[in-house]
Amino acid sequence: MRSGLLILRSIPVAGSITWERFQAHQFLTRLLAEQKREQRLGTGVFLGTVHSAKGLEFSHLFILDGGWNLPAKSEEMEEERRLFYVAMTRAKRFLGLFRLAGECNPHLAILGKEQGLTFVPSPARLAGPGPSLLRHRILGLKELFMDFAGRCHPGHPVLTALKDLNAGDELGFGFVNAKLCLLTPAGTPVAAVAASAREEWGTLLPRVSRARVIAMVKRRRSDCKGGYEAKILCDDWEIPIMEVGLVASWGSF
């Protein structure tokens, strides 16, 4: 046993040992499953079944709905009720019970009647537009005009703004001279969307929640081929790689 890891070494034995290996596998499977159930790391969120939470306690506990249907037999109903009670007693300070629309949870009905509990509807169930999701998309070199900043003289505000950019900085979108550009908070363009991707990104603009720099790529005059190097006015410049958050409603998936 090394640092909680049990190491087995195969030993040649005459004859068949298939059954012994099977028993060892079964034992180790149960042992590892039990260790996984009992091991607690850090102070994060524990997500598990009621059975896996037996013997544990939590300062804040939430019991989800779904699957707590009315059993066909009365003895099964009593067993389900005890299980639900065990789940509730895992809470030390706060207990939150969820009720799923369309489900018939007999335990919640009893609590509401005998204990006077009142269930508050979720905001997602109220009238109005549904909740929003945020999807992320990378705006990289294939969709950017890589020579945009290279066509600026040394000391140009575009090059100065690029030198001040760091990973994590946020940029905005805007049109400059008919080009869809990435702008600093001060309004300085630091990159431009390539002509081949301009139409697609133009349609995505209403859904953009945020655009964040995740990397800076250096490009040099010698990287330009096909006669384009003649239009380059500086030796090197940087291109921001962006992570763009796009808002989408549930119905768009």
For this entry, give a set of tags.
Alpha-Beta Plaits, 253 residues, disordered N terminus, 5 helices
Mind explaining what this structure looks like?
This protein is 25% helix and 25% strand. By secondary structure, the chain is α+β, with helices and mostly antiparallel strands. The protein folds into two domains: 34-125, 2-Layer Sandwich (Double Stranded RNA Binding Domain); 132-252, Alpha-Beta Plaits (2-Layer Sandwich), CATH 3.30.70. The strands form two sheets. Strands 3-8-7-4-5-6 form a six-stranded antiparallel sheet. Strand 1 (58-63), helix 2 and strand 2 form a beta-alpha-beta unit. It is elongated.
Strand order of the largest sheet: 3-8-7-4-5-6
Distance between the termini: 49 Å
Give the CATH architecture of the largest domain: 2-Layer Sandwich
Which regions are unreliable across 5 or more consecutive residues at pLDDT < 50? 1-16, 249-253
- Secondary structure tally: strands: 8
CATH class of the largest domain: Alpha Beta
CATH topology of the largest domain: Alpha-Beta Plaits
Helix content: 10-25%
Alpha-beta content class = alpha+beta
Radius of gyration using CA atoms only: 30 Å
Write the layout of secondary structure elements.
Layout: H1 18-38, E1 58-63, H2 74-88, E2 91-97, H3 106-114, E3 132-139, H4 157-164, E4 170-176, E5 179-183, E6 189-192, H5 195-204, E7 208-220, E8 236-249
Parallel strand pairs: 1-2
Antiparallel strand pairs: 3-8, 4-5, 4-7, 5-6, 7-8
Compose a concise summary of this entry.
The protein is of the alpha+beta class and 253 residues long. It has helices spanning 18-38, 74-88, 106-114, 157-164, 195-204, and strands at residues 58-63, 91-97, 132-139, 170-176, 179-183, 189-192, 208-220, 236-249.
